[in-house]
TrEMBL record, chain A:
InterPro entries, alphabetized: DUF2849
Superkingdom of origin organism: Bacteria
Protein name stated in the entry: DUF2849 domain-containing protein
Species of provenance: Sphingobium scionense
UniProtKB/TrEMBL annotation, chain B:
Species in which this protein is naturally found: Sphingobium scionense
Keyword ATP-binding in record: no
InterPro entries xrefs: NIR_SIR_4Fe-4S, NiRdtase/SiRdtase_haem-b_fer, Nit/Sulf_reduc_fer-like_dom_sf, NO2/SO3_Rdtase_4Fe4S_dom, NO2/SO3_Rdtase_4Fe4S_sf
A molecular function GO annotation: sulfite reductase (NADPH) activity
Superkingdom of origin: Bacteria
Domain Nitrite/Sulfite reductase ferredoxin-like: 52-110, 341-393
Name used for this protein in its record: Sulfite reductase (NADPH) hemoprotein beta-component
Alphabetical list of Pfam families matching this protein: NIR_SIR, NIR_SIR_ferr
Class of the enzyme per the UniProt entry, highest EC level: oxidoreductase
Enzyme Commission code: 1.8.1.2
Length: 98, 543
């Protein structure tokens, strides 16, 4: 599948296109198919996202998984600061990245 | 320390107002990201992997207690409670909101700080020796020169759009603690027949094409240093490769046309500069120098240090350096706790170091390119009290220049350019070599890790260097041996095929085993490597 990610223009937070808006959880990502570039233009023009780009991802038992490690780290947060990532109570969260 | 005059303050304040307006226009859509990006970068605001990142300039790595305290306050108020000290003696905040950026810059301006020229193809923050002004072996304090160059290079209209970024370093000792020869231009202050001037080195740098800067002049009189640099920059600005960003640094120009030809062109331009009379007024240099006059050191102080506590004694032996004034010492504060993140400091730790600087170090501290901190003016009698407070704050690691004093860039945990994570690897290496006895046995061993070819972690200059690469989507680590950023500058050589994260830790252990087996009395790791060469290490690593 293809999913769309970028950063919230105001907060800088990593965000994922969920089909009808943006989510901070990669698991909410929607398959954008061939619509990614159009969505980038529309959403950036609407000042909802900055630096948006389309990536490859797969659906696993654990949910949507970006194909590249860089985007998995974007999805989780820094692996060296589990207290700051999106799953602070999951001791094994860092393993999902690798 | 230098203090802003009304001109310095007004231009920094004006820049805050200007950026506030630019941010507002971006948030309302009057500016597109393409239009806004160069403006935010000029103010040190990047869009990084997780959020906006703000890089704050710390001129030649010098801070007052008040400035340090402000950095901590900003970390607590606008970020997630910490900051990251970088290999360019700066500080980065990782979690900045765009709307907050103007307020942060205003807070910085209130303590005579800014983020101007911490990005972009301009002259960046001037770096220097963290022992400037307190080391007994320097010919002059390099900080007045660094400050003069800061003023000369700030908003210099001719050098705002160089072919590529430009980094200048000023030192004044034979011991190079600032990686001077790995800068675009390095200045080493020297004394010749009783006259102060500078040796000039040009075309050094790391990144994808590392080079040690060759000397291009053995002496420029102090009053002509600015004019000479103007000539160096002018030749680079005219002929630097603007067609290819990977070949746009001055090192490529110097390499491609040759040192002699570059020198010839600089001398030609310098002769023209002399006609123009662009040397700074003597009064201005004197004005700046006055800010860096020796503080009023107390006299009659004891040289004795009570070494009864073994942990304290170990810390003194490793972290405390000789000061030029009797009864005083230089304290190095490690930002490399064994399970921590190299260069990171919490808001509370930053506040503590600010207080220590105010109470014990004549209100001054330094940031080192090795991502540590320095209290430059400490009475030896105060060392136990300082150590006690550092210990309670997790800042009393005794590992300066040892294998666990690792330089590491933020890597793929934070950086959009990175290919691999540097920090977890640094932590694994630190844990493998955690035993104090083992670190001491290995002695001086500078280990540096970069998460990509841009080499922010100075891997080319590590006695042991590690470069993280992306091999088909998997982190892989190349190992280098034999680099140095010191006065004996050299570039590390790659050992061979790369490793997994665990594999490179094992390889380092084999490398250190060879060193221990082969070294002769008094040899550092680097000395042994230079004597016996790569072959024994390679055989041990790859069998």
């Amino acid at each position: 599948m293809k999913i769309l990610t970028g950063n919230d223009l105001v907060t800088g937070d990593v965000i994922w296109w969920a089909g009808d808006g943006w989510s901070r959880q990669v698991g909410d990502s929607a398959d954008v198919g061939e619509q990614g570039d159009d969505l980038v233009r529309t959403e950036e023009a609407a000042l909802r996202v900055v630096g948006a780009y389309v990536i490859d991802a797969t659906v696993t038992d654990e949910g949507v998984r970006p194909a590249h490690i860089k985007d998995r780290i974007r999805a989780l947060g820094p692996t060296v600061r589990p207290d700051l990532n999106l799953k602070p109570n999951d001791a094994d969260a860092g393993n999902w990245v690798i | 320390m230098y203090r802003y005059d009304s001109y310095d303050q007004s231009i920094v304040d004006a820049r805050v107002d200007e950026f506030r307006d630019q941010v507002q226009r971006r948030l309302t859509g009057a500016l597109t990201e393409d239009q806004f990006k160069p403006l935010r970068l000029m103010n040190g605001l990047y869009l990084q992997l997780h959020a906006y990142m703000l890089r704050v300039a710390i001129p030649y790595g010098t801070l007052s207690g008040k400035q340090m305290r402000k950095l901590g306050e900003i970390a607590a108020k606008y970020d997630k409670g910490y900051g990251h000290f970088t290999t360019r003696q700066n500080l980065q905040y990782n979690w900045i909101k765009l709307a907050d950026a103007p307020d942060i810059l205003a807070e910085l301006a209130s303590v005579e700080m800014h983020a101007i020229q911490t990005s972009g193809n301009c002259i960046r923050n001037i770096s220097s020796d963290q022992y400037a002004g307190v080391s007994a072996d320097e010919v002059a304090d390099p900080r007045p020169w660094a400050e003069l160059l800061r003023q000369w290079s700030s908003f210099h209209p001719e050098f705002t759009y160089l072919p590529r970024k430009f980094k200048i370093c000023v030192i004044a000792s034979d011991d190079d603690r600032a990686a001077m020869k790995l800068h675009d231009i390095g200045l080493k202050l020297v004394s010749k027949d009783g006259v102060i001037g500078a040796e000039v080195y040009a075309g050094g740098g790391m990144g994808r094409t590392p080079m040690v800067a060759p000397q291009i002049r053995d002496f420029v009189a102090e009053e002509e240093i600015v004019s000479y640099l103007e000539a160096c920059l002018r030749v680079y600005n005219r002929y630097g490769r603007r067609d290819n960003k990977y070949k746009a640094r001055i090192k490529i120009l110097v390499h491609e046309i040759g040192v002699e030809e570059y020198k010839r062109q600089v001398e030609e331009e310098f002769a023209h500069m002399r006609e123009l009379g662009l040397n700074p007024p003597t009064e201005e240099l004197d004005r700046i120098r006055a800010f860096f006059a020796n503080p009023a050191y107390d006299t009659g102080l004891s040289e004795d240090i009570d070494r009864a506590d073994p942990a304290f004694a170990l810390w003194v032996d490793r972290q405390v350096a000789a000061h030029k004034a009797p009864g005083y010492a230089i304290v190095n504060i490690s930002l490399k706790p064994l399970t921590g993140i190299p260069g990171d400091a919490s808001a509370e730790q930053i506040e503590l170091v600010a207080s220590l600087a105010e109470q014990y170090s004549l209100d001054e501290l330094r940031v080192t390119h090795a991502q540590n901190l320095v209290l430059p003016h400490v009475k030896k009698a105060d060392l136990p009290a300082i150590w006690q407070q550092l210990e309670e704050a997790g800042l009393a690691e005794a590992n300066l220049d040892l294998i666990t004093d690792i330089i590491a860039c933020p890597g793929l945990d934070y950086c959009a350019l990175a290919n691999a994570r540097s920090i977890p690897l640094a932590q694994k290496i630190a844990q493998r070599f955690a035993a104090a006895e083992r670190q001491a046995e290995l002695g001086e061993l500078k280990l540096k890790i970069s998460g990509c070819i841009n080499a922010c972690g100075h891997h080319h200059a590590g006695h042991i260097g590690i470069l993280g690469v992306d091999r088909k989507g998997v982190e892989n680590f190349q190992l280098l041996l034999g680099g140095s950023g010191a006065e004996d500058a050299s570039l590390g050589q790659i050992t061979g095929p790369g490793f997994s994260e665990d594999g490179v830790v094992d390889a380092i252990e084999k490398v250190t085993d060879i060193y221990l087996a082969e070294r002769t009395d008094g040899e550092r790791f680097l000395d042994t490597y230079r004597r016996i060469g790569m072959k024994p290490f390679k055989e041990a690593i790859y069998g």
